[in-house]
Structure formats: structure tokens, C-alpha cells
Design brief:
The complex is a heterotrimer of chains A (215), B (227) and C (194). By secondary structure, chain A is an all-alpha fold. Chain A has helices spanning 3-15, 30-35, 40-63, 73-95, 97-103, 114-124, 129-159, 181-214, and strands spanning 161-162, 165-166. Chain A has a two-stranded antiparallel ribbon. Chain B is built from 5 helices and 9 strands; from the N terminus they run H-H-E-E-E-E-E-E-H-H-E-E-E-H. The longest helix of chain B has 45 residues, at 15-59. Chain B is globular. The N and C termini of chain B lie far apart (65 Å). Chain C has helices spanning 2-15, 26-31, 36-63, 72-94, 96-102, 105-109, 113-124, 129-159, 169-183. Chain C has one domain (2-186). With 194 residues, chain C is mainly alpha-helical. The chains are: A mainly alpha (215), B alpha+beta (227), C mainly alpha (194).
Chain lengths: 215, 227, 194
């Protein structure tokens, strides 16, 4: 593998983590993001299932990209995605029955997660298999990271625990609202606020250095 | 941009090719889905069964075998060996003697529908246990119907008077003084009341359908499900 | 019986609102709802698709899925996609004016997870066809209600002086959190009184 390929592969992977993070930067796939993040373990399971579907569909679509007529591409994408979701659904039900029960219909709802169809349309159908996998892995990791961040902060505040392990002892009065629906909206709102503020701050820093150089 | 150019360069693909591509995608996905279905089905069925069995054994003390019963056309409970429409489960102890019924029921809770299963022994008019299977009650308050030990345990020792007018179980705030009284959880009165209501309703509906005490359906051959 | 139906309806409309409690259909909720007028139209179109999809799903559940349970997800997706297409053609034929008004929103409905969520919940709760329709009307009404509330608040917020960081999705999320908080007050509507 040449240095150049490696560099590009890393670039395709890393953009999903932060710069083009599906949740923080692009605000896609909000429904599962909010619905299952009342505990860290659910968030992790959801993130992994989505990554699996994303990588699987991207690989297949990228392999077939020259054989799918443009007119039926969306239908084909959806059939492929639905297949991988069904596979993920049954597999999770077989190996982790309790988590599957907790996530309920939201595993099946990965089908309509805009991130997945979006990546097929924007990336996998135009790029080689290797880069498509890198892109899918990056987006999947970014999604999982965002879910985990949201899930852990909600679980820590709302139940005083992380991955089911008690953190603060019996005297902690949990901030119950955080694991209820409104808490999901408010927490993600605050995180996005932080993300915006950070971007703003970096932008200003960059502008200042630039004006400094010009002067 | 390059995609646009490619599109215009290519001739319009024939209808045959369009249908062919979709057909092929459908075929491949069909195989994949049926494959994973066949591969995981035994494990999933076993998981579901184990979860249900676990719940039944918990609400009927001493149970070791179970048998599904369905509602016959005459309105009586009869064995349902194929488990097509199980309405009630009969539980049996190690020796195969009848131990009690496990009755699933659901109804409106504080937030969303509550699904539960409870054990019932008709001869003594006794509730032998209760377990909430599904609920979205408020964490920290309503979800005590699942987590509060005292509340869950009191369902193991309830008795009621069969001649009393329904509802046979009564929810009380504070200490219960009669065996047919259920103690509400402080701060979760509504969820406690919902649970009591669901059980009362299921009792009123199911008791007339159950076989007379003493004539319970015997455990089907093979001993049914082992613990 | 009618009590049961009322429970299903109110539960989907208010207590367990699809948008504010189940987090379904958030994309149009955040993306589209800038004007009350469009919010009402989109809500109506979605409700209509929900009712049709719910009927189709009941049919599939009764006659096809017992033989091939593994096709559930794929068949539901196809049903929703073709319902949307069909509704689009139908409205175009019957009322071109309405078609122009709904125009761009119709294809968007296909990727609205509220509809897939609706048919999946309906199946897992084993609703009958009638209960399914009532559930669909309640859920669609709840979706419309949430959309309209959000649009109303955002119309006002557009005009007010807010710091740049807060504008956009972050603000919408915080507003949604507060609406959702208010909707929590509907809990216990059916179990509160004796």
C-alpha cells in the first residue's frame, strides 16, 4: 500500500469522526440517536448495529456500483440496506436477547436512518470498495462515538451509573429527567451548542492568525 | 460532476436491464434473509421460550414444567400443544402435579401499556406471584412496580374471597390489613393502581374460563418443558 | 370496545406522542417545520399515508407474513414506498392544486421513520385492522400537533435577537425538549382517576 493510499484512507476514515460527524456536524439520523440513548449499553449496541449495516451496504453497493442503472439505484440501495438490517436484527436477537428487547423496533428502524442511504448515494456508489469501507467505518465510528457520548452523559446524570455500574453511591439523587424523552432533546441540544461554540472559537482563532500573518 | 457526464454518455438502459437489476437484488437479498432466518431461528425461539419460562417459574412457586392453554370455541381453556394462541399457561411441579396457572395480561399504565404475568391457584383463590414484562413507567417513580422488592413480593401472598363482588383485589395506601389488599408504593400510586386493575380485570375474565379445581388438564406426554 | 379505541387514540396523540416521546419523524420535525402553514400540510399528508400504510400492513400481517415472517421489514418498506408513490399520483390526478401545495413534501414522507415505526409498533402490539387505523390517525394527529407547535415557536424565534451559536438545530432541540417536557403532563390521562 503506497503512502498516498494510506493517507487518503486515513482521511476518508477520520472525516466521519469529527469534521463530518453524522450527528454533530450533519445532524442526520436523529431518531435512533435520541430514542435509544437512555443508557450507555443501549447506545453502544445501536452504534455497532448501525456500523455493521453501514459497512455491509457500502461494501456491496461499491462492488456493484458500475452495474446498477441510475434509474433504479435508490430502490436497489433500499433492498440492500433492508437485507443487512434484517440480518443485524436476527443476529442481535439470537446473541443478545435482552438488549434486542430493550431496543425494540429501533433496530428495524435503522433502514430509514438517513445516514446509511446518504452514504450510499454520496460515497459508496462513486468510490472503490476500499475507500467505501474506510468511509463507512469512519461514519459508523463517528455515529457510535456520538451515541456513546450522549448515552453515557444521560445515564450518568439520569441514573447515576455508567454501563449499569453505580458511580456515586446511594446518596446521589438521580436527575431522572435526563433519561426521559425531554432529557434526550435537551442533552443533544446542549452538546450541539458546545460543538457550535467550539467551531466558532476555532474559526475565530484561525481568522486571527490569518490577519496576524497578513499584518 | 463526473457522474453527470457518465449518465449522459450512456444510452438509456433497457427496461429489461432495470427490472433485471432489481430482480437480482431481490433474489440475492431473499437468499441472505432466508439464510440468516433459518440459521438464527432455533436460538431465537429458545431465547423467547427461556424468557417466558423464567417468568412463569418465578410467578408459580415450585413449577418445573409448563403447558400452554388456549381458549376453545366453548369458552373453556384447553391444551394448546402447537402454541398457536396461548392465553394462559398451566404449570406443574417436578412430579408432574398441577402447581398453578400463569396468566399474562396487559392494560394502560401511567405512561404506556403495562404487560405483566401473574400466578394464580384457583383452589385457594390465591395469587402466587407477579412479574412485569414490559412497561415504560417513569424511572425512579413508576418503575418501582418492577424494582420495589416489597411491592413485588406482596403479590406472592394475596388471597381473595371468591364470593365478594369484583374487583376482588383492593389497592390501599399504607398498611394492608386483609389478604386481598395490595399496598400501593408511595409516590407511585397510579402505577400501583394500574397493576392492580390489570390483574383484577384478567381475573374476572379468566377465572370462569379455567377448568374446575381438581380437573386441570394433565401434563401432556413427554413432561413438557424441562426447567 | 370504544374505550379501548379511545385509549389507543389519545395514547398515540398525546401521552406517547410519536415525535416528542418516541422520537420518530424527527427529520421533518427539525428540517421542515419553519412555517405553520407548511407544517399543517405536511402533517395532513403524513397522516393520510399512515392510515393507508397501516391498512396495508394489517393486510400483509394477516395474509402474507404468517408464511414468511422474515419478509416483514422488506415488505413494510416496499408498502410504504409504493403507498407514497400511489398517493402522489392519486392527488395529482384528483386535485392538481393540492398536489402543487404538497409537492416536494410527498417523496420526503418515504424516509419518515414515523411511518415505518407506526406499522412496526402496530404489528408488535397485535392491533386489529380497526385499531391500527385509529392508532394511525392518532399518531398522525400527534405528529401534526408537534410539527405545528414547533413551527409556531420557530416563526417567533426567527425574529428575535439570538446569539449565533444558539441558532439552528441546537435551539430547535432545546425547544423540543421543553415541548416534550410539557407533554409529559399528559401521562396518567387514562390511569389517573378511578
Amino acid at each position: 500500500m503506497s503512502l498516498e493510499t494510506q493517507g487518503r484512507a486515513w482521511q476518508e476514515y477520520s472525516k466521519g469522526l469529527w469534521r463530518e460527524n453524522p450527528i454533530f456536524a450533519m445532524v442526520l439520523g436523529m431518531c435512533p440517536t435520541l430514542a435509544v440513548t437512555n443508557s450507555a449499553i443501549n447506545a453502544l449496541a445501536m452504534g455497532l448495529a448501525t456500523t455493521f449495516v453501514l459497512v455491509g451496504s457500502s461494501t456491496l453497493i461499491s462492488l456493484l456500483r458500475n452495474h446498477i442503472p441510475k434509474q433504479v439505484r435508490i430502490s436497489t440501495f433500499i433492498v440492500v440496506i433492508a437485507t443487512f438490517v434484517t440480518v443485524a436484527d436476527y443476529t442481535l436477537e439470537a446473541i443478545a436477547y435482552d438488549i434486542h428487547k430493550e431496543l425494540g423496533a429501533f433496530i428495524a428502524l435503522i433502514v430509514v436512518n438517513c445516514i446509511i442511504l446518504g452514504r450510499q448515494e454520496a460515497f459508496a456508489s462513486k468510490n472503490t470498495v476500499f475507500y467505501s469501507i474506510m468511509d463507512a467505518l469512519g461514519m459508523g465510528s463517528g455515529f457510535t462515538f456520538a451515541l456513546l457520548l450522549l448515552g453515557s452523559s444521560r445515564e450518568i446524570l439520569g441514573s447515576g451509573s455508567l454501563f449499569g455500574i453505580d458511580l456515586f453511591g446511594p446518596h446521589y439523587e438521580p436527575w431522572v429527567i435526563m433519561i426521559l424523552p425531554p432529557g434526550g432533546f435537551i442533552m443533544l441540544g446542549l452538546i450541539l451548542l458546545g460543538f457550535n461554540a467550539l467551531g466558532e472559537w476555532r474559526q475565530r482563532l484561525r481568522d486571527e492568525t490569518r490577519t496576524g500573518e497578513a499584518a | 460532476m463526473s457522474v453527470e457526464l457518465e449518465g449522459s454518455k450512456q444510452a438509456e438502459p433497457s427496461a429489461f436491464r432495470l427490472v433485471g437489476t432489481l430482480g437480482l437484488a431481490g433474489l440475492v437479498s431473499g437468499f441472505a434473509i432466508v439464510g440468516i432466518y433459518v440459521a438464527t431461528l432455533p436460538k431465537i425461539t429458545a431465547n423467547k421460550k427461556a424468557a417466558l419460562q423464567h417468568a412463569i417459574f418465578e410467578v408459580v412457586p415450585g413449577a418445573a414444567h409448563t403447558q400452554a392453554l388456549r381458549l376453545s370455541d366453548e369458552g373453556r381453556m384447553v391444551p394448546d400443544p402447537e402454541e398457536e394462541a396461548p392465553a394462559v399457561y398451566a404449570a406443574y411441579d417436578e412430579s408432574g402435579a398441577f402447581a398453578g396457572y400463569a396468566i399474562p395480561a396487559k392494560g394502560p399504565g401511567f405512561q404506556d401499556t403495562i404487560a405483566l404475568i401473574f400466578g394464580y391457584r384457583p383452589a385457594e383463590h390465591a395469587i402466587t406471584g407477579l412479574r412485569v414484562l414490559e412497561s415504560r413507567e417513569t424511572p425512579g417513580l413508576g418503575d418501582k412496580i418492577v424494582k420495589d422488592q416489597a411491592f413485588v413480593e406482596q403479590w406472592g401472598k394475596l388471597r381473595f374471597d371468591p364470593s365478594a363482588a369484583p374487583p376482588v383485589l383492593e389497592l390501599v395506601k399504607g398498611k394492608a390489613s386483609n389478604p386481598h389488599q395490595v399496598e400501593a408504593i408511595t409516590g407511585a400510586t397510579i402505577s400501583s393502581r394500574s397493576v392492580t386493575k390489570i390483574v383484577n380485570k384478567a381475573l374476572a375474565e379468566r377465572t370462569p374460563q379455567l377448568p374446575e379445581p381438581g380437573s386441570e388438564p394433565p401434563l401432556a406426554g413427554g413432561g413438557g418443558e424441562q426447567r | 370496545m370504544s374505550g379501548e379505541l379511545l385509549y389507543i387514540f389519545i395514547s398515540a396523540l398525546l401521552v406517547n406522542n410519536f415525535v416528542l416521546s418516541y422520537f420518530l419523524g424527527l427529520c421533518p420535525f427539525f428540517g421542515v417545520s419553519g412555517k405553520i402553514d407548511t407544517a399543517v400540510r405536511l402533517g395532513a399528508a403524513t397522516t393520510f399515508v399512515m392510515v393507508v400504510a397501516s391498512l396495508c400492513a394489517s393486510f400483509l400481517h394477516a395474509f402474507v407474513l404468517p408464511y414468511a415472517p422474515y419478509l416483514q421489514l422488506i415488505s413494510y418498506i416496499l408498502v410504504i414506498a409504493s403507498t407514497v408513490q400511489f398517493v402522489e399520483m392519486f392527488i395529482k390526478k384528483i386535485s392538481p392544486a393540492l398536489f402543487r401545495a404538497l409537492g416536494i413534501f410527498l417523496p420526503l414522507i418515504t424516509t419518515n421513520c414515523a411511518i415505518l415505526g407506526l406499522v412496526l409498533f402496530q404489528t408488535s402490539r397485535q392491533y386489529s385492522a380497526l385499531e391500527g387505523v385509529v392508532y394511525a390517525v392518532g399518531a398522525g394527529g400527534g405528529f401534526t400537533l408537534a410539527l405545528v407547535l414547533m413551527a409556531g415557536i420557530r416563526e417567533e424565534a426567527e425574529l428575535s435577537d439570538l446569539p449565533k451559536v444558539v441558532r439552528g438545530t441546537a435551539m430547535s432541540l432545546l425547544i423540543a425538549g421543553m415541548i416534550s417536557l410539557a407533554f409529559m403532563g399528559f401521562a396518567g390521562l387514562f390511569s389517573g382517576g378511578e
